[in-house]
Design brief:
The chain has 164 residues and is mainly α. It has one domain (2-163). It has six helices and two strands; from the N terminus they run βααβαααα. A two-stranded antiparallel sheet has the order 1-2. Helix 1 (9-31) crosses helix 2 (46-53) and helix 5 (113-130) packs across helix 6.
C-alpha cells in the first residue's frame, strides 16, 4: 500500500533536513558516534530513505526553484515513520519555544534563534497537520488556522504549475 503526496521543493528539502537531523540524533544516542551517515542504516529510517530515493534533482548540485512541485509516492511504513518523526520534532520544538531564551545566547549569536525556532515549529505544525497526524488538541486549532492561512498561496502555486 502507498500514498502519493505533492509539496513544493522547499517543503521537500525542509522535511529531508528534519528527518536527517532526527536520524543523526538517534544514531548518536544509540552508538555514540556523530559520524555515521544515516544511509549506512537506511532500513532504520524508512521515511528518510524513501524521500531520498525520490529526490527530484537529476544530479547532486542541481538546484530547483522553491516553488517547483514535487510528487512523491510513499509506502505506509514510510508515512508512519514520517508522521512519528514530525510529531516528535513538533513536540520538541514546542517545548523549546516555551522555554525562556538565555541572555548569553542572544549576546553571542547574530542569529535570532528564538525566531528561527518559531519558524521551524510553524513548518512542523503545517506538515504534521497536512499529513493528518494525530496531535495534541492544544496544537490542532493552531495547525488548522495555519492551513487556512496558507491555502491561497497553495492554490496560486497549483494554478501556476497547471499553466506551465
Amino acid at each position: 500500500m502507498s500514498a502519493s503526496m505533492s509539496l513544493n521543493y522547499a517543503g521537500y528539502v525542509f522535511m529531508c533536513e528534519v528527518l536527517k537531523g532526527n536520524a543523526r540524533d538517534k544514531i548518536e544516542a544509540s552508538i555514540g558516534k556523530r559520524f555515521h551517515p544515516w544511509h549506512w542504516s537506511a532500513h532504520l529510517f524508512p521515511g528518510l530513505s524513501e524521500l531520498h530515493k525520490q529526490d527530484p534533482r537529476a544530479y547532486e548540485g542541481e538546484w530547483l526553484k522553491d516553488d517547483t512541485i514535487v510528487e512523491l509516492v510513499l509506502s505506509d511504513e514510510a508515512i508512519k515513520n514520517l508522521s512519528e518523526i514530525l510529531l516528535e520534532e513538533l513536540l520538541s520544538y514546542e517545548e523549546r519555544i516555551r522555554q525562556p531564551q538565555r541572555e548569553l545566547e542572544q549576546i553571542c549569536s547574530p542569529i535570532d534563534w528564538e525566531a528561527t525556532d518559531r519558524e521551524t515549529f510553524e513548518e512542523l505544525l503545517y506538515f504534521t497537520q497536512r499529513l493528518g497526524v494525530e496531535m495534541p488538541e492544544r496544537l490542532r486549532s493552531d495547525a488548522e488556522a495555519l492551513i487556512v492561512e496558507r491555502q491561497p498561496d497553495v492554490d496560486a502555486l497549483m494554478s501556476k504549475q497547471a499553466k506551465s
